[in-house]
Amino acid sequence: MSRVTITIASDRVSADVAVDDGGRLAQLTVDGVELLVDDASAPPTGWGAYPMVPWAGRIRHGRFSFDGVEYRLPINFDHHAIHGVGFVLPWDVDDGSGDHLDLRLDLPSDERWPFGGVATQRFRVDDLGLTTELTVLAGDRAFPVSFGWHPWFRKPERLDFRPTAMYRRHDGVAADDLVPPPPPPWDDCFVNHEPVGLRIDGVELELTSSCDHWVVYDERTYATCVEPQTGPPDAFNIAVRRLEPGASMSAWYRIAVEPPA
Q1: β-sheet bridge partners, residue 257
Q2: Please, where are the H alpha helices in the chain?
Q3: What is the rounded CA–CA span in Å between residue 92 and residue 94?
Q4: What is the spatial distance between Cα 225 and Cα 218, in angstroms, rounded to a whole number?
Q5: DSSP secondary structure letters along 66-127
Q6: Which helix (H) or strand (E) covers residue 65, if one does?
Q7: Residues facing residue 119 across a β-bridge
Q8: Which of 56, 115, 161, 231 could form a disulfide with 235 if both were Cys (CB 3.0 to 4.6 A apart)?
């Protein structure tokens, strides 16, 4: 079945959004250069740039406790619950034309995610890049929240990343203590407050975000993932952020390009 996308564009930058494929950015093109891995044969976790919501990364064994109740999320990757539910669900279009697109997702209230709520995305392009904003709104129940973005960039010629600390891993999942960052390759979560630089096919990119947690996965030969998120993996167990009924939480992420010569 062919993929349906909605394209928003400026003169230099175009963004193809696959609304029914997890509301993800299917492709980002700058001056004719495609920046993202777009592989129709890849699993939902392996292409484009998708929202991780209402949790980012792994929840260890899918288990966490909230307000004295034990919960178990479905296991979908290597004995853990990974990347939320938003990346596999169709999103609804709220608004969009020309250079912007607004999406909405009613989060489930079942075994996939027991709390309900709403997630929204806003995509905006201009001649200097793409900005995405992700918001989570609680309904009539409080819940833990952690979210972010998972872009699969085509393998860059350069990655400029200068984190201040890294979360130690235990059995492949972030633990609750910080250590000095080792040299790459990485599949780890870092604390980072600086812009991240990439060069892909000669296109210079600068990544910035309101988030101060970044996961970098650069072990694949064909791609590098640079993932800003509001907290570390397994946040529901090691760094809980609570969203009260009716409250919301937002974050933004920008992929900026050099001005034209």
Answers
A1: 205
A2: 235-238
A3: 6
A4: 6
A5: ETTEEEEPPP-BTTBEESBSGGGS--EEEEEETTEEEEEEE---BTTBTT--EEEEEEEEET
A6: strand 63-66
A7: 105, 136
A8: 231
Flag whether pLDDT at 1 surpasses 80. Answer: no
* CA separation for the pair 215, 229 (Å, rounded): 8
Among 166, 169, 228, 225, which Cα is nearest to 35's?
Answer: 225
Domains (range + CATH), the chain: 6-257 (2.70.98.10)
Q: Which residues of 38-74 are buried (b: 16+ CB within 10 A; e: fewer)?
A: beeeeeebebbbbbbbbbbbbbbbbbbebeeeebebe
Q: CA torsion sign, 117 to 247 to 191 to 105?
A: positive
Tens of pLDDT, residues 123-163: 999 999 999 999 999 999 999 999 999 999 999 999 999 99
Residue 235 is classified by DSSP as H
- pTM for the model stands at 0.96
Cβ–Cβ < 8 Å for 134, 146: no
Task: Take residue 157 and report the two structure tokens written for it.
Answer: 């010629």
